[in-house]
Amino acid sequence: MFLDRVKISIKAGNGGKGAVSFLRNAQTANGGPDGGDGGKGGDIIFKATDELNTLYSFRFKKKFVAENGSDGSSKNQTGKSGKNEIILVPTGTVLINPENDKIIADLSENGKEFRALKGGAGGHGNNYFKSSIKQAPSFSQTGETVKGKEVILELKTIADVGLIGFPNVGKSTLLSVISNANPKIANYPFTTIYPNLGVVEVLGETYVVADIPGLIEGASEGLGLGHYFLKHVERVRLLVHLIDISESEGRDFLNDYIVINDELKKYRETLKDVKQIAVFSKCDLIDDEELKEKLEKFEEKFKIKDYILLSSISYRGVEELKKKILENLKKIPKKPPLEVEDFDFDKKDVQNIEIRRTDDGSFEVSGGRIENLARGVIISDPRSFAYFQTRLKEMGVIDMLLEKGMKDGDTVIIKDITFEYTE
Ligand SMILES: Nc1nc2c(ncn2[C@@H]2O[C@H](COP(=O)(O)OP(=O)(O)OP(=O)(O)O)[C@@H](O)[C@H]2O)c(=O)[nH]1
Ligand SMILES: [Mg+2]
After folding, report:
1. What is the pTM for the complete model shown?
2. Separation between Cα atoms, residue 41 and residue 145, nearest integer Å
3. Where do the domains of the chain lie, and which CATH numbers do they carry?
4. What digits encode the pLDDT tens for the residues 195-204?
5. Is the CB of 169 inside a 6 Å radius of any atom of ligand 1?
């Protein structure tokens, strides 16, 4: 079973809580604060591998959560960091932000990694908060919590060459004779229902060929299977276009050539600029005289003299085609990875400080980091609260509130904390 587009949800680990602890041993009956920091949460990392060629496994597992950081403990021990969650995807997988359909990463090479989400920072233990005035802080900070996100995975096969043409023209048969692949072959249309990849070896060099399901008229608008799979030839450097010159299925071979090229162009304008090698398949089914006549018509109509006469049964033209593909590939530079949007899920969350005026005139502040900060406050502890206020100032939240018209005596609400602003 093949699957090449799927939406999954991912969440990095939360940071661990900092510890509140005081050193106590025989030498120091009442020692200083020694609560360690919480550990960092695990990251979400995508990694490309050639071992996979479909996103099928994501059909059953759609939720990925990295481990949370452990809480800090006494003796200044930092909590253990959460384990990263490494999600393996087939090489050629593209990550898309479902919010705007923009590409955020292109895992175009075996082993390439992309860190999609960063784990939350661990909270500081009370040791961190000791200063000349806070000699014995009895508070610590909770770890940063991170939000889950959704991401679309789309597989855009990476191959050097794409085999295209009507159904049943012999694409899979050709792939089976030139490469190590073993695709299904049968004498009916749409035998191939998902792309097959094969590695071709010729003159001591190799290249990768993708055989995609047959195209028909209207493929670019969704008819047949072709449209869905055209994305797998978007990235090839060379197209090998098979045309059944024996017309074994009763179509006109000249028209076949026009229809397929039209569909490519309709699907994506740039596909028409991809270099093509025209290959006449099933040459063994017609005699030389018929072949000659047909080739003349083709040359006359399209002004193309450069083509290959092929029979995957008698092997006519097979070696010639393999070499011709190699020659062409040498002249065409490798395609760079797709352009990606600069993207940082966490930043977006953290920087989004929102201030809302409630019905009774209070100021309600929300947003990633502020809420995290508020979680660590122990209201009953004046030192904890003072620290919170200092941080609000440092982060520019007080200025933002003043800009929004906050005055002496106004009420400010941040998560569970409500306080009155005094100048
Ligand atoms: N005589 C002859 N038959 C061929 C040749 N190549 C393929 N065939 C036959 O044509 C039929 C279709 O071949 P496939 O390779 O499955 O065709 P395809 O283009 O992959 O078809 P779809 O996957 O349906 O798009 C099979 O019965 C093959 O044996 C050839 O060169 N000569
Ligand atoms: Mg096939």
Report:
1. 0.68
2. 9
3. 5-154 (2.70.210.12), 161-331 (3.40.50.300), 348-420 (3.30.300.350)
4. 888 889 999 9
5. yes
